[in-house]
Write a structure and sequence with these properties.
Number of helices: 11
CATH topology of the largest domain: Endonuclease I-creI
Structural class: alpha+beta
Shape: rod-shaped
Number of strands: 9
Largest sheet: 5 strands, antiparallel
CATH architecture of the largest domain: Roll
CATH superfamily of the largest domain: Homing endonucleases
Order of helices and strands: HHEEHEEHEHEEHEEHHHHH
Radius of gyration: 35 Å
Strand order of the largest sheet: 3-4-2-1-5
Length: 320
């Protein structure tokens, strides 16, 4: 089971204690998967559709708990796509208008008895109470949400059927100090978060406590791993620089030895030249510790620079 599937399984187990929160979660699900249909005989129905049986069961349970009316559950197979969809249907114009109104949809102002009207096209008001906003986000995520495995990358998104639903979700998450963004590509629209701290907050908003704990554990491990990798990269870079510098110094010392001889150098430079030849991989600090008496890094660097300068002078002289 993927991280996203585990997250949804946890969200499906959450049942709000208050009726207004149940309605808010229903509204979130309906925004992403509900529609009002009008049959040829004039029958009006509220239909919720999903490819996930457990989500359809939750929608049925919440509708029954909230309205205690006759609800029809259907199962449909699409042979061409080799998948199954599930529907939860409320029949009757009075019942439909009651359900949508109590969930916050302003159906009365837009219903024109079209053959089918997705609830994504119906104005919906965001609940006022924070607990209801949390439930609304949870319902929307159950329908259209997905989350990458945090071991690989940080990405949380909710696919939405319209920009208006996207704006509603952005407002909902913004109430909890999240800063979601909206992308539209090839006819698809989604609200998303990529900041790890904000994703953790979004999990808390939805009530996904266990998923939040797992996410934070992974986040800490990734942070430590990144810190170690940065230190290793820095050390490798420093070693490479030291190696390149040492090669130039040894080359310069070899030129001095061949042209004028190390014996012609002042004592401190002769000592440093001998040490560098004997300790080609040593750092400046290690070279300084082997001089007599020991000297610091700056002293070692000064002497090596003098040797490089002498070698450069010899090259110019040979060239002239």
């Amino acid at each position: 089971m993927s991280y996203s599937e585990e997250l949804k399984a946890e969200l499906l187990s959450k049942v709000p204690g208050a009726g207004h929160c149940v309605l808010a979660e229903l509204a979130g699900m309906m925004c992403c998967g509900g529609a009002v249909e009008c049959g040829e005989d004039g029958t009006v129905s509220l239909v919720f559709s999903t490819e996930k049986e457990n989500i359809a069961k939750k929608c049925f349970t919440f509708l029954k708990k909230s309205f205690n009316m006759n609800i029809v559950v259907g199962k449909h197979s699409a042979v061409s796509r080799r998948n199954t969809s599930y529907s939860v249907r409320v029949n009757g114009e009075r019942e439909v208008f009651r359900c949508t109104e109590e969930m916050g949809f302003a159906l009365c102002g837009v219903w024109n008895r079209a053959e089918r009207m997705p609830l994504a096209e119906v104005p919906c008001s965001l609940p006022e109470k924070p607990c209801c906003v949390r439930s609304f986000v949870r319902g929307a995520f159950l329908m259209g949400g997905a989350m990458n495995d945090p071991n690989k990358s940080y990405h949380y998104e909710i696919a939405v059927p319209s920009a208006s639903v996207g704006d509603l979700l952005m407002q909902a998450l913004a109430r909890f100090d999240c800063e979601p963004k909206l992308w539209e590509r090839r006819g698809s629209i989604a609200v998303y978060l990529k900041d790890a701290a904000q994703i953790a907050d979004a999990l808390t908003v939805m009530g996904a406590t266990a998923a939040r704990v797992r996410f934070e554990d992974i986040r800490v491990v990734r942070s430590k791993r990144g810190e170690v990798q940065r230190k290793v990269n820095c050390e490798v870079s420093n070693l490479a620089k030291t190696s390149r510098a040492a090669s130039k110094q040894i080359e310069a010392i070899g030129l001095i030895e061949q042209t004028m001889g190390l014996a012609a150098l002042p004592e401190e430079l002769r000592e440093m030249a001998q040490l560098r030849k004997e300790l080609p991989d040593a750092s400046l600090q290690e070279l300084g510790a082997n001089t007599e008496p020991p000297i610091g890094r700056s002293g070692v660097n000064h002497r090596l620079q003098k040797l490089l300068s002498i070698a450069e002078g010899l090259r110019l002289k040979e060239g002239g």
